[in-house]
Each structure stands twice: as C-alpha cells, then as structure tokens.
Prior knowledge:
It is a single chain. The chain is an all-alpha fold. The protein has one domain (18-162). It contains six helices and no strands. The model is unreliable at 1-15 (pLDDT under 50).
Amino acid sequence: MRGKRRHGVRPPSxxxxxxxxxxxxxxxxxxxxxxxxVGAGLAGILPKNLGRLTPLLLGSLCIVVGFWMLVGxxxxxxxxxxxxxxxxxxxxxxxxxxxxxxxxxxxxRIVCAMAAIQTFGMGLGPAIAAPMIAGGSFAGAVWxxxxxxxxxxxxxxxxxxxxxxxGSAAA
Length: 171
C-alpha cells in the first residue's frame, strides 16, 4: 500500500503531473544541485563593495523566475533551467542572508537559530504544499513559493532601508 492515499488513488508524482520522465527530473535535480554549489561559492567571493542587497535581490529574482517557469505545462529544457535557477538562487542567497543576520545580531544568536528555522521550514513547507498538490496540480504550491519569495525580498529591502549608515538597526 506504499504511496497510496486513503481512497486507494495513488497521489500524483512530479513526473506524472508534469509528464516528465523520472530520468529528466533526476538529471535536473543533479545539475541543479551543482548550480547550487556554484551559487554558494559565488556568494563567498563577491566583492564587499557590492553590498548584500543587490546580490540578494538578483538571487531572489533567479528563484522567482525559476518557480515561474514551473507554471503550466513544463518541458524538459524549461524544467532543467527552472531547477538550475531555483537551486543556484537559493544557495546563493543563503550565505548572504546569514551575513545580514550576523550584521543584525553581533552575538550570533540569530545565525545559530537559522538552522532550527530552516529545519522547521523544511517540515512546514511540505505540510502546506501536500494538500495543494493532492489534486494533481502543482500550480498552487508554485504560486505560493513565488509569493513567499517576493514577500521575503520585500522584507530584505525594508530591512536595508531601515538600517542606519553605521550598520546598526534603526530604532
């Protein structure tokens, strides 16, 4: 009974819903993971004079565009490009977000809490997405991801605008 829902109907897999083979999905995830390594490495070698806001927004844009490419019927090339953009962008912004948290909290408590927050999110995300994809459509989950990224980017911009020139948080 593995993989069956209560009513005996098998839940949709990403390959069935998108009509992509499991080999294409596996290849996309493998190449996307490599792109994520490149993204994280690139974040580590960015010149300091660039600051964090512009790179964070560019990384967020990669993620939003990647998710947007997953809306509707997705072919193999669009799937590959979308996964590369999402995983590159995600792994690019993570070190930059850690740096922002370090700047905001000199004691490092926020950075330590980030691991717990990310773990919580890894459980909450699928819990929210599961009912959305149960009917066979990933559109709701994809749009939720897009909205969440745009909202998160808005918070990053707001935090940057509220920060004093000396780097401390505004009162």
